[in-house]
Amino acid sequence: MNNNTPLQTLVQSVFSPTAFDFWASHLNSTWSWQRPLARIVARQVAAKDSVTLTLKPNRHAQPFVAGQHINITAEINGSRVTRSYSPSLVPNQSSVFTITVKRMNGGKVSNWLYEQAQVGQVLELGVPFGEMTLSVLHQQHVFLAAGSGITPFLSLIHEWVAQDALGDVTLIYWAKTKAELCFVEAFSALTAKHSNLQVHYALTQEPDDLSHINARISQEMLENLVPDLNQRVAYACGPAGFVEQARSLTQEQAKDFYGEAFSLPLIANDNTEQVNIHLTKSNRTIRVASGQPLLAALEAQGLKPESGCRMGICNTCVCTKQAGTTEHILTQDRDHEAGSSVRICISSARSDLILDL
Ligand code: FES
């Protein structure tokens, strides 16, 4: 079905969308025929190694809600690179939103956004995704955040406050050092206004001078800070190891548990068996170690398959497997079926494979 307006149809008969984008971007960097783009309109240091970028999307960006993630694509040294971020503030009346990015060791996009992204530059946006949204209002919650995992919680709390729907929320936020804590002022302002919001900080790599906790997540800490855990819904966001530990410590007591990890767990792979992967679209065959995540294995050989979250959520990396056996890295489920869809970021090869890549 053609949903174009008459003006779009007229323009399209003269320009291709690509040509239109090329010429339009000379007039306004976020004008595009159909690509969701956002211009950086402000940047501010959020904490040590973290920066908050305020983004103004164009009209093609899809709406999203607090707690979701969005893929952000930047052009870095001539290559398009995509990573997922959970906005720390979702679009408001002025239709801007913010992402807070912590630079990671070796992180191509996070380091570029932290060091080089400037006001006026344009990023491409993907389709929003993620389940940790505002479905449960006016309830008792415990939010467990580690590192960058704090961003969806700030955005959820702001949304609940805006809707006058903030229930009883206890937030525990872990960082390595005090200097790496983001949004301390924002949380102070929120707790000053809302007595039903409790915020506790935990530092894992330095002594604490603000009566914070100085410890990793543990049963004892949860018993001290959340004695009524059995009446709360628990949410955890952070690295995979943290989310798994939060799950195992709260799952049996809390009313419900939602977890979102922004990294894959470290997987010991001592399997040195090599398999052949034939890529039909690029007509190449490469050899990789069986058991290695396919996305990482292909990238290590210089290939650039599309990817986003790199943890099995956004579906950006999905491709069709024509033949062979893959294994889901987290569940160890094997798939032998020809023609099935494979998310290569969380799948490994368990035989020779043919992939439509
Ligand atoms: S990159 Fe998001 S599912 Fe694989």
Structure keywords:
single chain; 357 residues; alpha/beta; Ubiquitin-like (UB roll); 3 domains; 6-stranded antiparallel sheet; 5-stranded parallel sheet; 8 helices; globular; binds FE2/S2 (inorganic) cluster
The main β sheet shows up as: 6 strands, antiparallel
Ligands in the model, by name, code or SMILES, are: FE2/S2 (inorganic) cluster
| CATH classification, class level of the largest domain | Alpha Beta
DSSP helix fraction: 10-25%
- The CATH topology of the largest domain corresponds to Rossmann fold
Order of helices and strands: HHEEEEEHEEHEHEHEHEEEHEEEEEE
- Number of DSSP strand runs: 19
Low-confidence stretches: none
Number of domains: 3
Q: What is the helix tally?
A: 8
